[in-house]
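Risk mitigation, structural track. In case the binding assays with zinc ion fail to produce interpretable data, a predicted complex structure has been prepared as a fallback.
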Amino acid sequence: MKILSIETSCDDTGISIIEATGGINNASFKVLANNVSSQIDIHIPYGGVFPALAKREHEKNLPLVLEKTLKEATAKAGQAKLKQKNGINSNPGIDAITVTHGPGLEITLWTGIVFAKELAQKWNVPLVPVNHMEGHMLSVFGKGKGSFKIPKIKTPVMALLVSGGHTELVLVKKWMDYKIIGQTLDDAVGEAFDKAARMLNLPYPGGPQISKLAEEERKNLGSQIFSLPRPMLYTKNFDFSFSGLKTAALYLVRDLQKENPNILQDEKIKAQIALEFENAAIECLVYKTKKAIEKYKIKTLIVAGGVSANKYLKSEMEKATVATAGQAGKNVKLYFPPKELTGDNSLMIGMAGYINYIKNKKKVPKIDSIKATGNLRL
Ligand code: KG4
Ligand code: ZN
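Fallback model:
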C-alpha cells in the first residue's frame, strides 16, 4: 500500500510517500519521495524555535512540499498507478495517510493534523496518528531513498531515545509495546546541548555546533583544561539529569568572563568547554545505557532521535556494545539511524504508521478524535 506521511512536530515540515508491504515481522518499504523543509534559518535570530512563527511556516510549506512530493512520487512510480489526475482533489493513488500527533509543539502538530485530516477526507483514505518517538525508534531501519525492510531482531530490545525534548531508555517488548525504564528528570540532552551552545554564542541548533568544536579539539590530544559534573551517574536507577550539567557550564562561562570579559573570543577556550560538555553528556548516556544492557540482558540496542547524529555518542556506544575478552558472542547488536534520518522526518512516521495500521488490523481512530498531544507518551 502507498502511504503519505506528514510530520510537523517542531520546525521541520516533512512529507513523504512510501510503498509498504509485508506483515509486522517482515515489513518492507520503498521510498517514492521524501522531503523535509527546514525552518532553521527563520528561527536563528530567536536562538530557538519560535512556535507561532513555526506554525505559520508549516502552513505555508505544507501545500508546497505536498506538491513536490506528489510530483516526485508520480515520476518514481511510473506506470504503477500513482497519478495526479485532477489536481489535489482527486486521490492520486494513496491508500492511507499517517501524521504525527505528538509529542512536540501542539501549535505546530495541529498544522500537520488539520492538513492531514483535510486530505484524508478529500481522498477518502484512513488517517493513522503516529507517536513521533516511535517514528524515531523505527528510523534506524530506514533509508532516505531506495528500499529497505525492518529486519528480524534479537530480543530483548532496548531503545535510547535522545532528542531536543526527550531522553529516555525504553524496553521494547514488541513493536507498539513499550516500557520506559529511565528518563531525564529535567532537561533533555539535546536541549542541554542547545543551551550550552547558546552560552558559547554558537547559533541554534547548538548540538551539531558543540559536537563539531568538541570533535576537532578531541583530535588535538592535548590535556583538558575544564571539568564538568556527570549528574546522577552512579544513581541506582536509569534516570538522567542534564540541568545540573548545563548550570555548571553556565557558571564556568560566567566565572571565566569575570576574569576576562572577552574570553569567548578565545576559540581554544570555547572548544575546550564544548569538549568537556560533550564528554560529560555522552558519558551519562553511555554509562546508564550500559548498566541497563547488563540488567535486562539486552541483545539489540537502538539509539535514535536528533542527538543520535552525534559522532562521539556513536563511537562510545559502539565500544560499549562490543563484547569484552572472555565474553565472545555476547555482542549487543547496535542500530543508529542513517545520517539523513537522524533529525525529524516523515519517512519514519510512515514506517511507524504502517506497523500501527497492520498491528491494529487496519482499524483507525475516528478522524474527529485525532488531536495534537504535546506530551504524548510511548
Ligand atoms: O529529534 P530532533 O531533530 O527534534 C526533536 O524531536 O527534538 O532533535 C533535535 C535535537 C536538538 O537539540 C539538536 O541540537 C540535537 O538534536 N542534535 C545534536 C546533534 N545533532 C542534532 N546534539 C548533539 N550532537 C549532534 N551532532
Ligand atoms: Zn524528533
